[in-house]
Sequence to fold (316 residues):
Amino acid sequence: MIAIQNGRGYRSGVPLPFKASPNIGGKLVPEYIVLHDTASGLNDSGPISWLTDPISKVSAHVVIGRDGKITQLVPFNVKAWHAGQSIWAGRPLLNGFSIGIEIVNPGKLQVVSPGVYKGVGTYDTNKDPSLVVKRAKTAAHGDGFWLAYTDAQVAAVHDLCEGLCKSYGIKEIVTHWLISPGRKVDTNPLFPLEQLRRDLSPLLRFTKPVTFAEIADDAPAPAEGDESAGGGDELAPVTPGTDYAAPIGTRDTDESAGGVPALWRLAKSRITQATAGMGLTSVVGLLSDWRSLAVICAFIVIACCGYIIYRRSLVQ
Ligand SMILES: [Zn+2]
Fold:
């Protein structure tokens, strides 16, 4: 049980350990939770030092250790710098409207010898049976060996997300690989994302659970070995059917410019946003057709009214 008060977390009434990061933005109204891996060794002290170092220019709201310990670095109502170039539901740069949770995990591993793997460190599953490494492959992650999360970590993520959902009315829980496709692969494929979203679906504003398979199929394959290719301009939204992903500023310009094409594009982008991540491609299509039909009908009605008024004015 984790409660949130004034941006700080309390576990069973006890404040979470807090180490302030200087890498913060302004006030945050959280709408999403973004899950990350630290891509570090197994100790939480390394990532905590890095995320609180002014030189790193990165941060997260919390770090969750292998033992389930949650260390808070940034108040939940203040922006942290965890997402970088990212987009979700047609909206770019998630640092502005999301909470970042870093889970201690080394990321993709290489096989050294049977039972021994190498990443940031070396992981010998023969010597340490608490280390579980599995091979997994998804469209977004590629094929690889990954270190399983501990039960304590999964439970801590669940409890924290539950508390955050209750406090902030979170729309959806996403991962870095979902919001930065082709650039990031965290969290790794062994994280029980589908289960977490299903468990907390009564608390999420987007309540339809999305299966892992659906997400994996929708996400483009990662750019092979080209980290620099993940520039903001090249990022495509994951949501199927989203064909209008211009920055918010551009959308606002279009909106104020008026005109049916701009309004129609805006309406379509809003529908896509509202249904993004819910796997409701068919509903988007249906609503899109309905909207276009409504615009056409409105035109016909306005034209008819105009004609009638014109005829009456002639009679008088
Ligand atoms: Zn990340």
